[in-house]
């Protein structure tokens, strides 16, 4: 540790922090894609020169080059075994670069780091303890927890680290929106929780520039016994002549430092895009100035009273979940066309609706093959035909920005019933060069859709209206170990799934096994039945589609059948399976093969005419 005490320094004055490490290294010619934290071992002189440049510019609070030096991040570079060494050496490098009048604090970044806000609590505890222990043993003057989008992760880090040391801990949030954390806490709530957790200081860093962080401070009540620390970005990242750059000038940062001081900020530094020139400008602006007391906003209650209320759109029809709790309910899948012609699809949808289908469900580019947008067709069948659509949403085709935009569009169209699936990889489809996105898993997307139902966006922003998504989860029972598949399904239920739709089943015993394996779940299960169209179709499913096995007696009955004869036998066999299914499930999911909607039309009528009002004894009350 240095000879200075961080608490004493902040009690008496302001501290100028340093600036960016990663973006500044990039400007100096260090390529992206490498582990910058490892440079403390492999090129210590490079890191030392950065620390020295900030010190000479006027910074007296120096952060170690350890933002991502946790086990999870280092493991990506094959460096998981060097967590302690990298953190220890980073402290030594920083200390050797500056004078005795500078304080060196250990930087610990968010492990979640902008990904979907769901994590293994115990694993994160271990990783935070490992990194913090290494930094503390190396003699840092304090810990800075930085770039946390989610309050709950930040509180977890504090909970782990606070018992390890009595040295100061500063906890900094990164904001997507000026008013809230990503996990939907107001900043007032966030700083109140952090004060109770035992931190010494709170503040912001990264993502936003000086003006937006000033606005956040102006709107926020911060407990009086906490220091305030702010490290803004050099504005927003922009594309200039083909290169991504930060454009905010050092002079502007110098002016902004004075405005931050007026908000009671005691530690003022820079984050992404800032350079020694930015820090020098701030240090010169703040030279010899005393700190100013924090004055919290006084009109918070009045502003809260003016807040726009959250509205909930009224439903006009029962959902499939509401229906299946009291009667047999049929969902029919009819895939969108692969071309621009829609008349046959719309005719089929209308006939299926007349037959009694509670919803027409449409895949989202199934088998990674390009089809017409199911959102567009869903809007057409809803507005023109009065049919309730149930659209599939794949994790494959959209990044998080596109995904939220897509589901907001579904909400605007009144399409509230959805099925979340992972989606087949693009390499198996008709455009194998396309990218598979997979920003989130199906578990995470289910959870995020239910978050929209609470009036909170994916980023944590409060919305003026709650969505009303009824979210389905897919279940593939065609696995070697059914119990493992059910455990995976249970996680989807925990994430918020409202109902389940299974892959097609072709044997009576399989239907009974699924009923038994899912009997403990308290949400409806729609059992999948897809009629065979001929012998070749049966052979294909039996031999080439993973997990699906057609019973020998069914293959024998389908043998050599094709065309109309094959489809007729396929419907007959499907009816026999439905007789078994209806003894165990009220929810029936009919899958139309090759757009032969006449087959599923007949099967829909069979289900609803066989047991139109009464339940077969033993059929699941869950569906």
TrEMBL record:
InterPro entries on file: FAD-linked_oxidoreductase-like, HCY_dom, HCY_dom_sf, Mehydrof_redctse-like
Cofactor entry: FAD; Zn(2+)
Pathway(s) the chain acts in: One-carbon metabolism; tetrahydrofolate interconversion
Stretches assigned to the Hcy-binding domain: 3-286
GO BP: methylation
Amino acids binding Zn(2+): 206, 271-272
Name of the featured protein: Bifunctional homocysteine S-methyltransferase/methylenetetrahydrofolate reductase
């Amino acid at each position: 540790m240095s000879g200075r005490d961080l608490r004493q320094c902040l009690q008496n004055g302001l501290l100028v922090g340093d600036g960016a490490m990663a973006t500044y290294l990039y400007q100096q010619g260090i390529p992206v894609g490498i582990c910058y934290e490892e440079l403390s071992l492999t090129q210590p002189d490079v890191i030392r020169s950065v620390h020295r440049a900030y010190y000479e510019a006027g910074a007296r609070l120096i952060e170690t080059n350890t933002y991502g030096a946790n086990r999870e991040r280092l493991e990506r570079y094959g460096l998981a075994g060097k967590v302690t060494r990298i953190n220890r050496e980073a402290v030594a490098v920083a200390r050797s670069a500056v004078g005795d009048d500078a304080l060196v604090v250990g930087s610990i970044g968010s492990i979640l780091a902008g990904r979907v806000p769901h994590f293994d609590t115990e694993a994160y505890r271990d990783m935070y303890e490992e990194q913090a222990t290494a930094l503390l043993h190396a003699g840092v003057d304090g810990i800075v927890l930085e770039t946390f989008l989610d309050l709950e992760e930040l509180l977890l880090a504090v909970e782990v680290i606070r018992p390890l040391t009595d040295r100061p801990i500063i906890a900094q949030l990164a904001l997507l929106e000026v008013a809230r954390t990503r996990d939907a806490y107001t900043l007032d709530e966030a700083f109140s929780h952090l004060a109770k957790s035992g931190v010494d200081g709170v503040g912001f860093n990264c993502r936003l520039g000086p003006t937006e962080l000033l606005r956040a401070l102006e709107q926020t009540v911060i407990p009086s016994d906490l220091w305030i620390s702010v490290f803004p970005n050099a504005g927003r990242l922009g594309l200039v002549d083909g290169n991504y750059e930060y454009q905010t000038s050092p002079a502007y940062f110098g002016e902004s430092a004075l405005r931050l001081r007026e908000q009671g900020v005691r530690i003022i530094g820079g984050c992404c895009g800032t350079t020694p020139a930015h820090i020098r400008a701030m240090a010169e602006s703040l030279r010899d100035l005393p700190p100013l007391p924090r004055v919290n906003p006084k009109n918070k209650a009045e502003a809260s009273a003016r807040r726009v209320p959250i509205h909930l759109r009224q439903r006009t029809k029962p959902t499939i979940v509401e229906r299946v709790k009291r009667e047999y309910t049929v969902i029919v899948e009819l895939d969108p066309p692969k071309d621009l012609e829609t008349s046959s699809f719309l005719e089929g949808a209308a006939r299926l609706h007349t037959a009694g289908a509670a919803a027409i469900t449409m895949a989202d580019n199934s088998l990674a093959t390009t089809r017409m947008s199911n959102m567009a067709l869903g809007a057409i069948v809803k507005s023109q035909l009065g049919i309730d659509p149930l659209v599939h949403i794949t994790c494959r085709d959209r990044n998080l920005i596109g995904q939220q935009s897509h589901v907001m569009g579904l909400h605007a169209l009144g399409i509230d019933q959805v099925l979340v699936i992972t989606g087949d990889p693009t390499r198996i489809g008709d455009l194998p060069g396309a990218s598979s996105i997979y920003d989130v898993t199906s578990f995470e997307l289910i959870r995020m859709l239910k978050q929209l139902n609470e009036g909170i966006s994916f980023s944590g922003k409060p919305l003026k209206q709650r969505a009303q998504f009824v979210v389905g989860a897919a279940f593939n029972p065609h696995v070697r170990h059914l119990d493992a598949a059910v455990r995976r399904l249970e996680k989807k239920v925990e994430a918020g799934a409202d109902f389940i739709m299974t892959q097609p089943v072709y044997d009576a015993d399989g239907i009974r096994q699924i009923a038994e394996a899912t009997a403990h779940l308290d949400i409806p299960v729609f059992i999948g039945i897809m009629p065979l169209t001929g012998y070749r179709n049966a052979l294909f499913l039996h031999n080439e589609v993973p997990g699906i096995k057609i019973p020998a007696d069914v293959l024998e009955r389908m043998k050599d059948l094709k065309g109309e004869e094959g489809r007729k036998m396929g419907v007959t066999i499907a009816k026999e399976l439905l007789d078994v299914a209806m003894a165990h499930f009220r929810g029936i999911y009919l899958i139309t093969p090759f757009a032969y909607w006449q087959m599923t039309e007949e099967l829909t009528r069979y289900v609803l005419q066989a047991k139109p009002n009464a339940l077969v004894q033993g059929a699941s009350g869950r569906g």
